[in-house]
Amino acid sequence: MGHHTFDADRAATLEAPEQRYRVLSAEELRWALDCAADDTVVDLGSGTGFYTDDVAADTGEVYAVDLQPEMHDFYREKGVPSNVELVTAPVDEMPLDTGSADRAFSTMTYHEFATAAAIEEIRRVLRPGGRLVIADWAANGEGEQGPPLAERYALTDAVEMLCEHGFSVEFEAARPETYLLVATAD
Ligand SMILES: C[S@@+](CC[C@H](N)C(=O)[O-])C[C@H]1O[C@@H](n2cnc3c(N)ncnc32)[C@H](O)[C@@H]1O
After folding, report:
1. Assigned domain for 167 exists
2. Residue 2 pLDDT > 90, yes or no?
3. What is the mean pLDDT of residues 139-149?
4. CATH for 121
5. The predicted structure's pLDDT at residue 158
6. Residue 79 burial (C-beta neighbours within 10 Å; 0-12, 13-18, 19+)
7. Do residues 24 and 180 make contact, with C-beta atoms less than 8 angstroms apart?
8. Which residue range(s) make up the domain with 85?
9. Residue 125 pLDDT greater than 70, yes or no
10. Is residue 61 situated within a structural domain?
11. Best mutation site among 6, 108, 133 for ligand 1, i.e. most ligand atoms within 8 A of its Cβ?
């Protein structure tokens, strides 16, 4: 499957709380991450920081990783919380220390970076026992919102990929249009 990167010209469409929280609420994301107040967290493909802000309100330092500088520019104009650091890099080559993160998460972006190299890099950056949360559009959805069905993964594919690259899946939920999974770094 080819990985299609979100068009930065459409950044403003991500800032739509009514639509976005119907698909993934801040409440369920914060529940899945279960952050402590001093945790270090990595947002993988942070975009405009829509969900980064929700997570940053609850925790320690947050690295907002995105490979498109235009997305960070949008976030800067919106206003970046003081505990969020913008990192312009691809998920498969993050300039972060090994074992330095307690939590990592990705919202609606896994299908854009899902290679073995990226998963191994996330595993490297997380400490053993650290938690990874992925919410993404599912291949068995109807495709009325989000990327085309052909660009999406099934929950089972994502679980298999994580288990092959150093994670144990603790929780998985298949919903009508999306899936949510929680994994722990081995
Ligand atoms: C669909 S947007 C979602 C943004 C954000 N996670 C949200 O839920 O609002 C996907 C974002 O991931 C970024 N992205 C895609 N592939 C990436 C990669 N390999 N490494 C880092 N960022 C990536 C894109 O630049 C884009 O900003």
Report:
1. yes
2. no
3. 91
4. 3.40.50.150
5. 98
6. exposed
7. yes
8. 24-185
9. yes
10. yes
11. 6
Number of domains in the chain: 1
Q: Whose CA is nearest to atom 25 of ligand 1?
A: 68
Q: Are strands 126-137 and 41-44 parallel, antiparallel or unpaired?
A: unpaired
Ligand 1 mean position, distance from CA 32 (Å): 20
Within 10 Å of residue 115's Cβ, how many Cβ atoms? 15
Q: Tokens at residue 156, please?
A: 């089972």
Least reliable range by pLDDT among 1-5, 37-41, 65-69, 77-81: 1-5
Structural contact between residues 103 and 41, judged by C-beta atoms closer than 8 angstroms: yes
Q: How far is the CA of 64 from the centre of ligand 1 (A)?
A: 10
Q: Is residue 89 part of a domain?
A: yes
CA dist 127 and 186 (Å) reads: 9
Within-domain flag for 19? no
pLDDT higher than 80, residue 1: no
Query: From ligand 1's centre to the CA of 38, what distance in Å?
Result: 25
Q: What mean pLDDT comes out for the span 69-88? A: 98
